[in-house]
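User: New here, any thoughts?
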Amino acid sequence: MVVKEEKTQMVHSPILTYFSMLSLLSLCPPFVILLWYTMVHADGSIYQTFDLFRQNGLQAFYDIWPKPSMTAWKIIFCYGAFEAALQLWLPGKRVEGPISPAGNRPVYKANGMAAYAVTLITYLSLWWFGILNPSIIYDHLGEIYSALIYGSFIFCILLYLKGHVAPSSTDSGSSGNAIIDFYWGMELYPRIGKNFDIKVFTNCRFGMMSWAVLALTYCIKQYETNGKASDSMLVNTALMLIYITKFFWWEAGYWNTMDIAHDRAGFYICWGCLVWVPSIYTSPGMYLVNHPVNLGIQLSLYILLAGILCIYVNYDCDRQRQEFRRTNGKCVVWGKAPSKITATYTTSSGETKTSLLLTSGWWGISRHFHYLPEILAAFFWTVPALFSHFLPYFYVVFLTILLFDRAKRDDDRCRSKYGKYWKLYCQKVPYRIIPGMY
């Protein structure tokens, strides 16, 4: 078993690391409920929710926290079982992931786009033929989030125990600290049997898929409540669905990213994808259900086109790097041969390997340029809410902090991995995210 050293996870100081972990473990669950309550029952007003707590103290938490209902558990179970079945049984191309630190190469079945299409068609068909009204999901949303909070916490405990007693590969081990092991995870590639990859399920088939399902749910709920869907809701829903479609079209590339190839399966990734993604990432649409905004055709089109452009640039950044890696640098980037650095590194088993670092195209502008259009895309699917309240923009703020922190973690990991080659890379591409600024 490969032992994960604690220092490999601490890209910040130990005190800041422990404070961040304990804060997120304790504050994220109640924040999910607070955001839902404020969006749905407090007119989106932070002040109204604050006033409730000012008058009632912590008793307000008990009053507003919904108890997981049987309906909520049924919805979660049926949805999860449906997505698990699609992940296992839909045909897909065999795709190999990157070689892990322990020398393992995971194998996946790339059927995400098919699962996405089947999910949306099934969901819309159930609504169209009167079999399932999506309003039921919206009306039980608080109970669903409450059930997800508790159920996903138990799920992460089981992942922690599995990492101790039945790891799926040698890419597992303990840091010697139970809090770090629970938060960051024990296993890099946990699986049930040989074919069911747990992180693909939590990150892609439950988390990202639920984002699309809830986006449609909010739009349909507004339509059924008001007799029409506002242009602001339509722009919000369209941009989120385009972004998620891009994600599943590119899903095999996602398996090469930090989330899958470097971050282990613990509270940070798995609870985040099971609870935080469905609740926080969808929150602009949740707000718009009860706050329809009339943008007008011209402004709607401007926002829609700007959002689509950002999503395309984000996709093209990833496509460019993926093609560069697939061809081992023998491709064309913006009409000419790519500029690159050939870097060598040593694996944990002592083997010397080579990587190519792309320094032209989008990747010559900044080292993580693809994060910039992703943040801007999130802004454009939120801005239809306009500016009456701050809370719809929480996701944009959160995403900015998340991606800036991820860029730092990725830089620190690459600096440790590539040494002098990474220093040379940073000299050629000096900016981390924002060209000319950062």
